[in-house]
Design brief:
The chain is mostly helical and about 190 residues long. The longest helix has about 45 residues. The N and C termini lie far apart (about 85 Å). It has four helices and three strands, in the order E-E-E-H-H-H-H. It has a three-stranded antiparallel beta sheet, with no helix packed on it. Strand 1 and strand 2 form a beta hairpin. The chain is elongated and about 70 Å long.
Length: about 190
């Protein structure tokens, strides 16, 4: 129903029919139900963008921090195989670039979790979720843009894990085999 330019919906979700014109619904609600304010669609779009923006910053930060940590950990484990063989710096950079897809595949789910927890806890601590609910926006509608973005990110990661990561892992293994063949006696250690 629309009363004085404001959107309202019946709480029981039944639409009354006029007995004189059954093909045209009326603007009233059934007996025992009440009108509830519903935000206009453009306000919902603004709120959706706001919620997604609240997730973007923590997602980028946690993704870069976690990826850096795991990549440095992987490089530190492989460092004895790389140092002392007289490798040019381009090979080391290529090694780090080829190790990046596996690291991204491992850190993106953790980054999404951290971003979601941070964004919704910040919204709750500032009582913004309470304000959204008081203005007639349901929690499901508030979470819808995040769920849709998560599904899109999942589809991108399925493609990434299927196409990009196997090719990068193959190239990385080939590079490590080539490095091991450069000075095979370097890997020997006295006991």
């Amino acid at each position: 129903a629309r009363v004085r330019g404001i959107n309202y919906t019946c709480t029981d979700r039944h639409v009354l029919r006029d007995t004189n014109a059954p093909d045209r619904p009326t603007t009233g609600c059934a007996a025992g139900s009440s009108l509830r304010w519903s935000p206009p669609e453009r306000h919902v779009k603004i709120i959706s963008r706001y919620v997604l923006r609240e997730h973007a910053g923590p997602l980028i930060f946690s993704m870069s921090a976690l990826t850096s940590l795991l990549l440095l950990n992987y490089v530190a484990k492989q460092l004895p195989q790389l140092v002392g063989k007289g490798l040019p710096w381009t090979v080391i950079v290529e090694f780090m670039i080829l190790a990046l897809p596996f690291t991204i595949a491992m850190t993106l789910p953790m980054a999404v979790l951290v971003a979601t927890l941070h964004a919704f806890s910040r919204l709750a601590s500032d009582s913004e979720i309470t304000a959204f609910k008081a203005s007639g926006l349901s929690l499901q509608r508030l979470m819808m843009p995040v769920v849709v973005a998560g599904l899109l990110l999942s589809l991108v990661m399925v493609w990434f894990n299927d196409r990009v990561m196997p090719a990068a892992n193959y190239e990385l293994q080939t590079l490590l085999n080539d490095i091991a063949r450069k000075k095979p006696t370097f890997a020997l250690r006295p006991q």
